[in-house]
Every structure is written in C-alpha cells, then in structure tokens.
Amino acid sequence: MRRRMRREPRSSFPFPTLLFFRRRRRRPPLDLRTRRRARESQAQVRCSRSCIAENCESVGIRYGKYCGVGWSGCPGEKPCDDLDACCKQHDECVEKKGLMSVRCHEKFKNCIRRVKKSGKSGFSYECPYEIAMPTMIQGMDMAILFSQLGSHNAEL
C-alpha cells in the first residue's frame, strides 16, 4: 500500500524576499505632490447657479455660489452678495497660484473683514454674516496652517 505524501510547492526564491527587494519608485518632492493634488481637487470642483446656504457653522459650509470646499460658481455667474464675491476672488486666486497659496488665503480673510466693516447684510437669513464669516475665517486659518506645514520655507 502506497501512501500519498503532500508536496510543498517548490519555490527557489521565497516570496517575502521578493517584497523586500522590490524596486521602489522615487516619490516627487513634497511641493510637486501637493501641486498635483491641488490640480486633481480643482478638477473635481462643481459649479453652482443658485444661491445656497448650508452647514453655516461647520467647515463643510456652502454659502452663495462660490463659497465652500469643492464648490464654485458656474462661468459667468454673478456672486449672491459681497461675501460670495470674496469667495469668487479667492477661487480665482487659488486657480492661478494653487491651493497652497497663503497669500490667497490672507487676501480672502482681508476681504471678509472689509465686508464685515461695511455693515451690509447677506442674502441668507438662515446663514447670516455673523455666523458665516467666523466659520470661513476659521477655515482659512486651517488652510494657512496646512499650507505652512506643507511648505519647505515655513517658519515654525
């Protein structure tokens, strides 16, 4: 009577060794990676033709046509009010200089301050300037922080 013996699969080169010696791709410098991500995220921006006010007290805020991460007004659309016009200017600046541009974020914060000083009110009763502006300034402060952390020239 013959016994059948199990055979182990033959491998002249163990699998874990292959993983260890696998050639790694060189990663581009950080600033190139962040630029690529910025271009990819800009390609995912959706446009709005109507004035919207949602999530006014969170970083997920949508205000007007131009305010909100991942949103912008459709080409040729006029802003809903002065605050929305600040968002439009910020979108245009970021489109030219990139999402990591601290200068764009600072200009946006200054624009918000000018609108606040004007004493005007916005288009939305559900999302008044008194709520929307601090939310947007906080979001810009976070964007500035992340931009500085991603920059090689940042002073900490």
UniProtKB/TrEMBL annotation:
The keyword Signal applies. Signal peptide: none annotated. One of its GO terms (cellular component) is extracellular region. The keyword Endoplasmic reticulum does not apply. Keywords: Calcium, Disulfide bond, Hydrolase, Lipid degradation, Lipid metabolism, Metal-binding, Secreted, Signal. It catalyses: a 1,2-diacyl-sn-glycero-3-phosphocholine + H2O = a 1-acyl-sn-glycero-3-phosphocholine + a fatty acid + H(+). Its cofactor is Ca(2+). GO terms for biological process: arachidonate secretion; lipid catabolic process; phospholipid metabolic process; pollen development; pollen germination; pollen tube growth. InterPro entries: PLA2 (IPR001211), PLA2_histidine (IPR033113), PLipase_A2_dom_sf (IPR036444). Transmembrane segments: none annotated. It comes from the Eukaryota. One of its GO terms (molecular function) is lipid binding. Its main location: secreted. It is found in: Secreted. Its EC number is 3.1.1.4. Belongs to the phospholipase A2 family. PA2 catalyzes the calcium-dependent hydrolysis of the 2-acyl groups in 3-sn-phosphoglycerides. Releases lysophospholipids (LPLs) and free fatty acids (FFAs) from membrane phospholipids in response to hormones and other external stimuli. This is phospholipase A2. It comes from Ananas comosus var. bracteatus.
